[in-house]
Amino acid sequence: MAPSMMSVSNCMTKKTSTALRTHTCRLTISNTRSGTETAFANWVAKIGPQTARVVESILTGYKVEQQGYRTCMALLKMSDSYTPERLETACGKALFYTPRPSYKSVQTILKPGQDRPPEEPAHTPASKHGFTRGADYYRGGQK
Fold it and tell me: 97: which of 4, 69, 107, 125 is 20 to 30 A away, CA to CA?
Protein backbone atom coordinates (compact mmCIF):
# COMPACT_ATOMS: atom_id res chain seq x y z
CA MET A 1 0.00 0.00 0.00
CA ALA A 2 1.45 3.37 -1.00
CA PRO A 3 2.06 5.86 1.84
CA SER A 4 -0.35 8.39 0.31
CA MET A 5 -3.17 5.85 0.42
CA MET A 6 -2.65 4.77 4.03
CA SER A 7 -4.88 6.22 6.67
CA VAL A 8 -3.42 8.07 9.62
CA SER A 9 -4.53 5.32 12.00
CA ASN A 10 -2.69 2.68 9.97
CA CYS A 11 0.59 4.55 10.05
CA MET A 12 0.39 4.93 13.81
CA THR A 13 0.01 1.19 14.37
CA LYS A 14 2.74 0.06 11.98
CA LYS A 15 5.65 -1.59 13.71
CA THR A 16 8.50 0.30 12.12
CA SER A 17 11.15 2.66 13.31
CA THR A 18 9.95 5.95 14.79
CA ALA A 19 11.65 8.02 12.08
CA LEU A 20 10.05 6.05 9.27
CA ARG A 21 6.65 6.07 10.98
CA THR A 22 6.80 9.85 11.48
CA HIS A 23 7.83 10.37 7.85
CA THR A 24 5.05 8.08 6.62
CA CYS A 25 2.46 9.86 8.77
CA ARG A 26 3.53 13.25 7.44
CA LEU A 27 3.25 11.96 3.88
CA THR A 28 -0.17 10.55 4.59
CA ILE A 29 -1.49 13.72 6.16
CA SER A 30 -0.09 16.01 3.48
CA ASN A 31 -1.20 13.84 0.54
CA THR A 32 -4.77 13.32 1.64
CA ARG A 33 -7.23 16.17 1.43
CA SER A 34 -7.30 17.90 4.74
CA GLY A 35 -10.44 19.50 5.98
CA THR A 36 -9.19 22.91 4.87
CA GLU A 37 -10.86 22.86 1.45
CA THR A 38 -14.06 21.61 3.03
CA ALA A 39 -13.86 24.22 5.78
CA PHE A 40 -13.42 27.02 3.21
CA ALA A 41 -16.33 25.68 1.18
CA ASN A 42 -18.61 25.54 4.22
CA TRP A 43 -17.56 28.96 5.47
CA VAL A 44 -17.95 30.58 2.06
CA ALA A 45 -21.36 28.97 1.54
CA LYS A 46 -22.59 30.85 4.61
CA ILE A 47 -21.51 34.18 3.11
CA GLY A 48 -22.56 33.92 -0.52
CA PRO A 49 -21.76 32.95 -4.12
CA GLN A 50 -19.75 36.09 -4.98
CA THR A 51 -17.39 35.45 -2.06
CA ALA A 52 -17.09 31.82 -3.16
CA ARG A 53 -16.00 32.97 -6.61
CA VAL A 54 -13.38 35.29 -5.10
CA VAL A 55 -12.02 32.52 -2.85
CA GLU A 56 -11.91 30.16 -5.82
CA SER A 57 -10.01 32.71 -7.91
CA ILE A 58 -7.54 33.30 -5.09
CA LEU A 59 -6.91 29.57 -4.65
CA THR A 60 -6.47 28.97 -8.37
CA GLY A 61 -4.16 31.97 -8.67
CA TYR A 62 -1.35 30.14 -6.88
CA LYS A 63 0.69 27.29 -8.31
CA VAL A 64 0.08 25.33 -5.13
CA GLU A 65 -3.42 25.77 -3.75
CA GLN A 66 -2.23 25.69 -0.13
CA GLN A 67 -0.32 28.94 -0.72
CA GLY A 68 -3.63 30.79 -0.96
CA TYR A 69 -5.02 29.53 2.35
CA ARG A 70 -3.75 32.45 4.41
CA THR A 71 -5.20 34.98 1.97
CA CYS A 72 -8.55 33.19 1.92
CA MET A 73 -8.56 33.00 5.69
CA ALA A 74 -7.93 36.75 5.92
CA LEU A 75 -10.69 37.41 3.39
CA LEU A 76 -13.17 35.28 5.30
CA LYS A 77 -12.16 36.85 8.61
CA MET A 78 -13.27 40.19 7.17
CA SER A 79 -16.82 38.99 7.85
CA ASP A 80 -16.03 39.54 11.54
CA SER A 81 -15.06 43.19 11.03
CA TYR A 82 -17.70 43.88 8.40
CA THR A 83 -21.04 42.16 8.00
CA PRO A 84 -21.21 39.12 5.72
CA GLU A 85 -23.63 41.04 3.52
CA ARG A 86 -21.10 43.84 3.04
CA LEU A 87 -18.36 41.31 2.29
CA GLU A 88 -20.59 39.63 -0.29
CA THR A 89 -21.40 42.99 -1.91
CA ALA A 90 -17.73 43.99 -1.96
CA CYS A 91 -16.78 40.67 -3.56
CA GLY A 92 -19.44 41.20 -6.20
CA LYS A 93 -18.13 44.68 -6.91
CA ALA A 94 -14.54 43.39 -7.09
CA LEU A 95 -15.63 40.69 -9.53
CA PHE A 96 -17.29 43.39 -11.63
CA TYR A 97 -13.95 45.18 -11.97
CA THR A 98 -11.72 42.13 -12.52
CA PRO A 99 -12.22 38.39 -13.01
CA ARG A 100 -9.44 37.61 -10.51
CA PRO A 101 -9.86 39.92 -7.52
CA SER A 102 -7.39 39.89 -4.67
CA TYR A 103 -7.72 40.34 -0.93
CA LYS A 104 -6.47 43.90 -1.32
CA SER A 105 -9.09 44.81 -3.93
CA VAL A 106 -11.91 43.60 -1.66
CA GLN A 107 -10.36 45.41 1.30
CA THR A 108 -10.07 48.61 -0.76
CA ILE A 109 -13.80 48.44 -1.47
CA LEU A 110 -14.77 47.73 2.14
CA LYS A 111 -12.62 50.27 4.00
CA PRO A 112 -14.07 53.48 2.53
CA GLY A 113 -17.55 51.96 2.29
CA GLN A 114 -17.74 51.73 -1.49
CA ASP A 115 -19.86 48.61 -1.10
CA ARG A 116 -22.74 50.59 0.37
CA PRO A 117 -25.33 52.14 -1.92
CA PRO A 118 -24.89 55.89 -2.25
CA GLU A 119 -26.94 57.80 0.25
CA GLU A 120 -29.42 60.22 -1.19
CA PRO A 121 -28.51 63.77 -0.24
CA ALA A 122 -30.73 65.40 2.31
CA HIS A 123 -33.24 67.52 0.49
CA THR A 124 -32.76 71.13 1.47
CA PRO A 125 -35.85 73.24 1.06
CA ALA A 126 -35.56 76.04 -1.47
CA SER A 127 -35.31 79.53 -0.14
CA LYS A 128 -38.71 80.99 0.64
CA HIS A 129 -37.58 84.16 -1.09
CA GLY A 130 -36.75 82.53 -4.43
CA PHE A 131 -33.80 84.07 -6.25
CA THR A 132 -32.11 86.61 -4.02
CA ARG A 133 -30.35 88.44 -6.81
CA GLY A 134 -32.47 89.00 -9.83
CA ALA A 135 -31.69 88.75 -13.50
CA ASP A 136 -30.45 92.35 -13.53
CA TYR A 137 -27.59 91.45 -11.21
CA TYR A 138 -26.26 88.78 -13.57
CA ARG A 139 -26.67 91.00 -16.67
CA GLY A 140 -24.36 93.50 -15.17
CA GLY A 141 -26.99 96.12 -14.71
CA GLN A 142 -27.63 96.51 -18.43
CA LYS A 143 -31.18 97.26 -19.43
Answer: 69
pLDDT digits (tens, 9 = 90+) for 61-92: 888 888 888 999 999 899 999 999 999 999 99
What's this model's pTM, rounded to 2 decimal places? Answer: 0.59
CA distance 28 to 114: 45
* Amino acid in the structure at residue 99: P
Domain boundaries of the chain, sorted by first residue: 1-32, 35-116
